[in-house]
Design a protein that fits this description.
With 208 residues, this protein is α+β, with helices and mostly antiparallel strands. The chain has a single domain, classed as Alpha-Beta Complex (Peptide Deformylase). Helix content is 25%, strand content 25%. The chain is built from 4 helices and 7 strands; from the N terminus they run αββαβββββαα. The strands form 2 sheets. A 5-stranded antiparallel β-sheet has the order 1-2-3-6-7. The chain has a two-stranded antiparallel sheet with strand order 4-5. The radius of gyration is 18 Å and the shape is globular. Bound molecules: zinc ion. The site of zinc ion (ZN) has 5 residues, from α3.
């Protein structure tokens, strides 16, 4: 199910999220409560439907430490014929209770957020991060990299601590954005997936 994405500022986006508990005995049952599995599937669907590189649970209204991401992966030999010149594809990855265990370097990158449609700014991020998490099978996994993957991991994991990328910007920029978004929300405007780069709130569709 595609869920509605909360638009900043929202109190849900500003809260620290809770760890998701794993069932002590999950050999015969799914490792997490079934609602968690359902929410993770919905997050993947919502992220893909909105063309996002990542999504954190608070963005769809849940203060839980869950993140989904699109990660570049090599194509299998059987997929190469159909893919033409492409050698990689983007696959959704689900992370439960992720945390950054290593970071290196510094990069200035242009960033946006599905909760702040049409808003883009430069922010400073680590060049490389390594993250440990549980996957949906309850197993320990590690994911890391540089460039866009590092950026997406830092962005999404910050959401779990109630931080949005705009919190890295000046008070002035934050206040201006707040005015714009509060006004836009009051008019019933929200994100439109077919205009992800809309710079003007008039291009953002009214809530259905
Ligand atoms: Zn975001």
């Amino acid at each position: 199910m595609i869920r509605e994405i909360l638009i900043w500022p929202s109190p849900v986006l500003a809260r620290k999220c809770e760890e998701v508990s794993i069932r002590p005995e999950y050999s015969s049952a799914p490792p997490f409560h079934e609602d968690i599995h359902r929410l993770l599937n919905d997050m993947v669907e919502t992220m893909i439907a909105n063309g996002g590189a990542g999504l954190a649970a608070p963005q769809v209204g849940f203060n839980l430490r869950l993140v989904t991401l699109m990660v570049e992966a090599p194509l299998a030999d059987s997929e190469k014929a159909e893919a033409g010149r492409a050698r990689t594809k983007f696959v959704p990855v689900k992370l439960v209770n992720p945390r950054i265990v290593e970071r290196k370097g510094s990069q200035l990158v242009r960033e946006g957020c599905l909760s702040m449609p049409g808003y883009f700014e430069m922010v400073r991020r680590s060049t490389y991060v390594r993250v440990v998490a549980k996957n949906e099978m309850g197993a320990d996994i590690e994911i890391g990299g540089d460039g866009k993957l590092a950026q997406a991991l830092q962005h999404e994991l910050e959401h779990l601590d109630g931080v949005c990328f705009i919190d890295h910007l000046s008070i002035l920029k934050k206040n201006l954005a707040r005015q714009k978004f509060v006004k836009a929300k009051a008019k019933g405007l929200r994100y439109r997936a077919d205009k992800p780069d809309a710079q003007d709130f008039t291009e953002i569709a009214p809530v259905a």
